Amino acid sequence: MRTVIGIRTHKWDVLVKRAYEDLLTCFSASQIYIICDEISGQLIDLPEGLNKVSLSKDFLEKTGLKSTYDGLNQEDWYNPTKHRLGWLCGDYFYYAFHQAVEAECYWLFEPDVYLTPSMRQLFFKRLCSLKSDALLPYYALANESWYWRPKMAVFEDRIYKTYFPLSRLSARAVEVCLDERRRVSRRMREEGIADTYFPNDESLVATSLAKSDLTVEDIRTYFEPDAFRYFSIKSTIFTTIEDKLNDGCYLIPPFLGK
Predict the structure, then answer these.
(1) 223-243 pLDDT per residue, tens
(2) Considering the domain boundaries, does residue 228 fall inside one?
């Protein structure tokens, strides 16, 4: 079963470099790809020898996906400078990855995900043999208060959620999500639905897979609860990792240090 892993980014920086070097301890260089958000038309230069996949506006248009986005247009706890299509739709990176590279399983990582050295080895060793179509963190039925629920509720009645710093999808799962994203993109266009309601990656992927016949599992079920103690979505940002913490077995996003 060929497995590849992609680092999702809109620039080459110290975070991507660190993530790449860390992943080299678990994967061969031929398995690691840098998936670059080039939707704006600005190309990203990578160091020589690295595998690159481009997520471009041309790819989106040829694939039948929404290629423009005006942002959320409202006050919330997100940084407005992040309101880009590539930020909202992390699943787009999966589609470009799948189109460019043939594999059975695709991992997608954000560069601010940090696995301590012991977790790094355990994480992939424990999960690599699983046949599940999707491995998602915090996969569950969405509660009424979840921020992204009303947006996906325009298109579906039963909404599921996950978090998207890291995940793994089979080729079949990528195709299921792509079909759903195409359907949503078409409805947005034909019905004139405001960009405010364009579903994010977490809601679309989790909901699409929940209603499919594919096997979906929560990554957390394969680890002790303590391993996710420092898994933060918005409240805590790590800029340094103390030695005591680094000696433990933890998965830590977001880590913005070098």
Answers:
(1) 998 999 998 876 677 878 888
(2) no
> In which domain, by residue range, is 11 found?
3-223
Return the CATH number at 31: 3.90.550
Asked whether residue 171 is domain-assigned, the answer is yes
Residues in the chain, how many? 258
The C-alpha atoms of residue 232 and residue 79 are separated, in whole angstroms, by 16
Quickly tell me which residue has 């079920």 as its tokens. Answer: 221
| Nearest-angstrom CA–CA distance, 120 and 135 | 16
Structural domains counted in the chain? 1
Q: How confident is the model at residue 25 (pLDDT cuts 50, 70, 90)?
A: very high
Q: What does 195-237 look like in DSSP terms, one character per residue? A: GGG---HHHHHHHHHHTSSS-EEEGGGGS-GGGGTT--SSS--
**Helix residue ranges, H only, the chain:** 14-23, 57-63, 85-88, 91-100, 117-127, 149-152, 171-191, 201-210, 243-246
The pTM of this model reads 0.94
127: helix, strand or coil: helix
Give the list of residues 6+ apart from residue 202 with CB closer than 8 angstroms, or none. Answer: 90, 148, 161, 162, 163, 164
Query: What pLDDT, on the 0 to 100 scale, is given for residue 80?
Result: 46
Look at residue 247 and tell me if it is in a domain.
no
Residue 120 burial (C-beta neighbours within 10 Å; 0-12, 13-18, 19+): middle
Instruction: Classify residue 252: in a domain, yes or no.
Output: no
